[in-house]
Write a structure and sequence with these properties.
Blueprint: H1 2-11, E1 33-37, H2 66-77, E2 83-87, H3 97-106, E3 112-117, H4 122-132, E4 136-140, H5 146-153, H6 158-169, E5 176-183, H7 192-202, E6 205-210, H8 228-236, E7 241-243, E8 252-257, E9 263-267, E10 280-283, E11 288-290, E12 299-300, H9 302-306, H10 311-323, H11 343-346
Parallel strand pairs: 1-2, 1-10, 2-3, 3-4, 4-5, 5-6, 6-9
Antiparallel strand pairs: 7-8, 8-9, 10-11, 11-12
Bound molecules: S-adenosylmethionine and iron/sulfur cluster.
Iron/sulfur cluster (SF4) binds at residues 42, 44-46, 49-50, 88-90, 118, 140, 343-344.
Length: 348
């Protein structure tokens, strides 16, 4: 309450408003989901995301503060954003992340607050995250074999990540825990049995994400994409699968094992793009609004937040950016241009 009071003093009371026009792009898509990158820094160096060395970090003064993020989510919440995912870089390397979770939940407009993490710091923070009101969590684990995990992430951290996964699964407040694995041809195939065993015994859904051209080394090549359809065929050699009905705007096609034990999902942005019902916006750690993972333009909100622009002014910048939301990505088209930012600097 004291924060809300301080803001009211700062900016004057928010004008009472008619039910605000929901955020809609010029292709008729309602935008209701926001991914916030809270930092571009990370304690891993996954090959498909960051270079081994030589990243240029955003200066600390150029990173949105928790107050600024809260204000933006407040504005976005009043025009139809009701789902937020915190991501990065690695969100748990940013100090006091539970404080941000509490602030966002305290706004009362976000029904679904989720976190994507590499899990390394999760064991330490699981209880505080749940206590602050986090609804869901995705843990990225690309290999369940220690040396292969090391090869891909360039960190010998699998035991620590699995301890984090266990810790978060023990938190009753967190309604859903999922494991995400980036699928890479020539790497992932040999572990399908192991990932299926995890999905069947742990109670968390395991999802394979197709490798996208957002890597720091800029060495992505279509031949490295192990598609969801191919993975399904490989898995069905040893487990029958039944498709679960897809929720609107869901990125994953989800299948249950036919014997009822566990679920597995496929996120296939390269081979089966789901742009036509994309409802997402992204906010980078330095306050740039992006309307697509592959956007070549972004809208600066950090400047306006700091130069005294009022909420109505910021709302109008957001609406204008959303009107220009790309119809689809062009990964599979000649002339595709990889954005300058890596996945770690966008927020996956
Ligand atoms: N550090 C956290 C993590 O790894 O979960 C959050 C940020 S990370 C950028 C978010 C997700 O993007 C992770 O699941 C990661 O595996 C995925 N990712 C990163 N680079 C990718 C790429 N080039 N293609 C597909 N997924 C990618
Ligand atoms: Fe870090 Fe996540 Fe990128 Fe891996 S995928 S380097 S953990 S931001």
């Amino acid at each position: 309450a004291s924060r809300a009071a301080a803001r009211a003093l700062d900016q004057g009371p928010r004008k009472p408003r008619m039910a605000a026009e929901p955020l809609t792009d010029s292709h008729g898509r309602r935008v209701s989901d926001l991914r916030i990158s809270v930092t571009d820094r990370c304690n891993f160096r996954c090959q498909y995301c960051m270079p081994a060395e030589g990243m240029d970090w955003i200066e600390r003064s150029g990173i949105l503060t928790y107050e600024e993020i809260e204000r933006l989510v407040g504005i976005l919440g009043s025009i139809g954003i009701d789902a937020v995912r915190l991501t990065g870089g690695e969100p748990l390397v940013r100090r006091e992340l539970p404080e941000l979770i509490g602030r966002i939940k305290g706004l009362g407009t976000i029904r679904d607050l989720a976190l994507t993490t590499n899990g390394y710091l999760l064991e330490r923070h699981a209880e505080a995250l749940a206590g602050a009101g986090l609804d869901r969590i995705n843990v990225s684990i690309d290999s369940l074999e220690r040396d292969r995990f090391f090869r891909l992430t360039r960190r010998d951290a699998l035991p620590q990540v699995l301890a984090g996964l266990e810790a978060v699964m023990a938190q009753p407040g967190i309604g859903s825990v999922k494991v995400n694995a980036v699928a890479i041809r020539g790497f992932t195939e040999v572990e399908l049995h192991r990932f299926c065993d995890l999905a069947r015994t742990s109670g968390c859904q395991v999802r394979f994400i197709e490798f996208m051209p957002l890597d720091g080394d800029r060495s992505w090549d279509p031949s490295q994409v192990l598609t969801g359809a191919e993975l399904r065929v490989l898995i069905e050699e040893f487990h029958a699968l039944e498709e679960v009905e897809r929720e609107p705007s869901a990125t994953a096609r989800v299948f249950r094992f036919a014997d009822g034990q566990g679920e597995i999902g496929f996120i296939s942005p390269v081979s089966e793009p789901f742009c036509s019902d994309c409802n997402r916006l992204r906010l980078t750690a330095d306050g740039k609004l992006r309307t697509c993972l592959f956007s070549l333009n972004e809208t600066d909100l950090l400047g306006p937040l700091r130069d005294g622009t009022d909420d109505a002014g910021i709302e109008s910048m957001i609406r204008q950016a959303v009107r220009g939301k790309e119809l689809r990505h062009r990964i599979n088209e000649p002339g595709f241009q990889q954005p300058d930012r890596t996945m770690s600097a966008i927020g996956g």
